[in-house]
Structures are given as structure tokens and as C-alpha cells.
Amino acid sequence: MATIVAARVATGLSQVLKADDSVWSKAQPQTIALAPTPIGFQPSVYVVAAWRDRPYGLLADLDVRAVHTGNELAFRLEWAEPQPVTQPDDLDIFADGAALLFPMDGVDAPIESMGSPAKPVNAWYWRANLTAAIHATGQGAGSVLRLNDDAVSGVGRWASGRWIVVLARAFATPGGVQISAPGMVNASFAVWRGANQERAGIKAFGQTWHEIRLEG
Ligand code: HEM
User: Fold this and answer.
1) For the chain, give me the number of helices (H) and strands (E)?
2) Which atom of ligand 1 is least distant from the CA of 206?
3) What tens digit of pLDDT does each residue of 172-215 get?
4) Does the C-beta of 186 come closer than 6 Å to ligand 1?
5) DSSP letter for each residue of 153-167
6) How far apart are CA 45 and CA 19, in angstroms?
7) Which of 67, 89, 96, 169 is 20 to 30 A from 131, alpha carbon to alpha carbon?
8) For position 80, which CATH number holds?
9) Domain range enclosing 83
10) Backbone dihedral region of 51: left (phi > 0), alpha (psi from -120 to 50 degrees) or beta?
11) How many domains is the chain built from?
12) How many CA atoms lie within 13 A of 11 on its CB side?
């Protein structure tokens, strides 16, 4: 398990939300290995039948950086996508997406099932076709609930075959994981490939929790 160090930066959220801002050059990227979500945990019989023999979640790795402002924790995710999908213009077309997952207690929850009733999770979710990011909770695959609180900021930029997405949230937010600096919080990651019709439980994910260490 690689530790991702989030240094404190002396800038505000609006600057951190620029994928190309020099603030990100201070953050050391970590490459996170991704794998397809387990078909056995898909709650829908239709999804299991439709995807059992169909490849998905093949994005092998994701570059992750993190910084914090003293009030907000921000992640910059970068990955290769040769065929970006930003505007689904038919019912069977899905936009690219990326998300972070945290155990609600900051420490542990079953990752392969996206949480459980006893061990819920918190997700910060960016989608290429949406203007606002989504703050959500989960208690197991099939139980995602949106908080509709505008707590998560997210921006994405595609250029030269790569997506760069920044997701950020204030440390203390009702209903979500509580964060502090200095401190630690565990997180994992997921990426959906619209070009392969990936959505909901069909995606690439990090199979273990990664420790995020917020410096003081
Ligand atoms: C660890 C990384 C993961 C992250 C960041 C993540 C994040 C998310 C998010 C943001 C959604 C909402 C999608 C939407 O509204 O369209 C979602 C839905 C879903 N996820 Fe995950 N997930 C992860 C892992 C998993 C795993 C391992 C499974 C196991 C099969 C899973 C199963 C599902 C299912 C079935 C849905 C759709 C049903 C629902 O809305 O509850 N997820 N996930």
C-alpha cells in the first residue's frame, strides 16, 4: 500500500481546482493499480449476465496526487483515455467518470462491495457530462445515495489522450468522512470508461485502501 502525502499548500481552493496550476508540481504522483470490479458483487442479475463475458475495468493504472489548503483536501487524478466521452447523446452512451471512495470512519470498510451497512463509505464523484461533482454515501453495491449538498468540487480536462480531474472537499462536511490536518485518511479510486459503456458498478477500481497522509 503506497502512502500518498498531501502537503499543505498556501493557496485557495480556486487555484487548486486548476489541473495545470503550479501547486500540483509540488505534489509527488503515486501510481495506483486498478482492476475490474468483481462481477460476483454486482447486485443486478441483468448486469451480471450482460458483463460476465465482456471485458471492462481494464484501465491498469491511475496517477494520483493530493494537496490540502488547511480547509480542503484535493486530489488530482490523471489517466490515459484515447476516446473520451463527454456528452452521452443516446441512451446507450455513457460519459467518462472518476471517483474517490473513503471508509466513512476514515479507516476501514469492505472495498470489494463498496461498503456495508455496518461499515459505510463516502464517495466524491466526477462525471465528464456534469457541471457539478457529486457527494454520495454507500452501504454496499447497489445502495449509493446522493447527498445533494454541493460539498464536492470537481473539474476535468482532457488533452493529448489523457484526462486530468481534480476533486476537492472541505475537511468537515456533514454526512461525509471527516478529515483533519495533520492526519490520515484511507481512500481508494475508480474510473469509468464511457467508450466501453462503463457506468455504476462496472468500472476499474483500486482493490486496497491507500493511506492519505495530510501534513501539518
Ligand atoms: C473503490 C472504488 C469505488 C468507487 C470510488 C466507487 C464509486 C461509486 C459511485 C460514485 C457510484 C455512483 C454512480 C452513479 O451514480 O452512477 C457507484 C455506484 C455503484 N458501485 Fe461503486 N465504487 C467503487 C467500488 C465498487 C465496487 C468494488 C463495486 C462492486 C461491485 C461497486 C459497485 C457499485 C454499484 C453496483 C453501483 C451502482 C448502484 C448504486 O447506485 O448503488 N463499486 N460507485
Assistant:
1) 2, 14
2) 1
3) 999 999 999 999 999 999 999 999 999 999 999 999 999 999 99
4) no
5) EEEEEEETTEEEEEE
6) 39
7) 67
8) 2.60.40.1190
9) 4-214
10) alpha
11) 1
12) 15
